[in-house]
Amino acid sequence: MSFVPLVFSGVQPTGNLHLGNYLGAIKRFVEMQATHDCIYCVVDQHAITVWQDPFELKKQIREVTAAFLAAGIDPVKHIVFNQSQVPEHAELAWVFNCVARMGWLNRMTQFKEKAGKDKENASVGLFAYPTLMAADILVYRATHVPVGEDQKQHLELARDIAQKFNNDFKASIVSNGHDGELGYFPQPEPLTQGPAPRVMSLRDGTKKMSKSDPSDYSRINLTDDQDAIAQKVRKARTDSEPLPSEVDGLKERPDADNLVTIYAALASKSRADVLGEFGGSQFSVFKPALADLAVSVLSPINTRMRELMEDPGHIDAVLADGSERAGAIAAKVMGEVKDIVGFLRSRKS
Ligand code: TYM
Fold first, then answer.
1. Phi, psi angle pair for 11, to nearest 5°
2. Which residues does the annotation mark as catalytic?
3. Could you give the domains of the chain?
4. What are the pocket residues of ligand 1 if the criterion is a CB atom closer than 6 Å to any ligand atom?
5. Which atom of ligand 1 is nearest to the CA of 12?
6. What's the pTM?
7. Is it the case that residue 88 has pLDDT exceeding 90?
């Protein structure tokens, strides 16, 4: 016996969707549709762990949905929805808050980074963020989670929560008719082995490309037009050496490595192939080629996103349909979790 393979992943609607989100996550979401059933979520409840302007948030939820659709996610064959429309995420997260240990959450590096020096002033939600993320995945009993490398630690926590739940409630899991050895929840597997699991800042190849970097030149946004993309690539930081001919030559050259990795991921080639073509070239040759490639891949997505954003009614209808279908799966799992934990079911569930 094993769990039915199912893909789940999410993106926060916190603005400035960028090339890292695309290459590390959304491009892979599109690819996984060919081999798996997939559920893709706009995680608006995660977004409010830090302050979001309510008027902007609505727009940003639609924008991430538009990016999913524009990149090629099929909301009919698969499921696209926003988290807050399926209340079972928050419901299961509460159960997981009671399964996870303070010590586990205290180790999360993302909380430390985001809370900064003033931990006392961080929201409780920001601290508990990873238990909601575990609930997002496990409320569908999803088995595979395509994410960028920065989410790996959260996935490990989700696996620990699944395992502790399976152990703590083993007797009840069995008495409710499930396989005690397998457990009720799968151990979700992070899929981070894409071509660009960690896209770095264009201004500093040792820092992750991030939505919150104050410099807009650090990232290529999915909403950037052709001129902006070309200008950002032109201004990207580099060293003064020509490109090496071997991948080994990129060691200790983080800015060069980042640009070659981005080129390779956009072209669906290996870094070795890219260096086979550009080894020995100066950045004055490589950068225009990279800008052209980035424009050719991102422009159609950008254009489609703009068209979709002009019809918010259509986006809302996609999300409503997705939420209904996601909600049907989540309600069944949450009902079974209630039985296992020892709650009485309501008339609805
Ligand atoms: P978020 O919204 O920060 O990012 C969305 C996805 O983009 C990836 N990513 C990157 N990949 C490569 N290089 C980068 N520079 C880069 N920056 C971001 C992220 O790894 C992510 O895959 N906690 C998640 C959202 C979430 C989630 C989930 C994901 C909530 N619940 C359940 C998977 C399953 C987050 O903040 O992603």
1. -135, 135
2. 114, 208, 211
3. 6-196+311-341 (3.40.50.620), 216-308 (1.10.240.10)
4. 8-12, 20-21, 24-25, 43, 46, 133, 136-137, 145, 147-148, 150-151, 154, 197-199, 208-209
5. 2
6. 0.97
7. yes
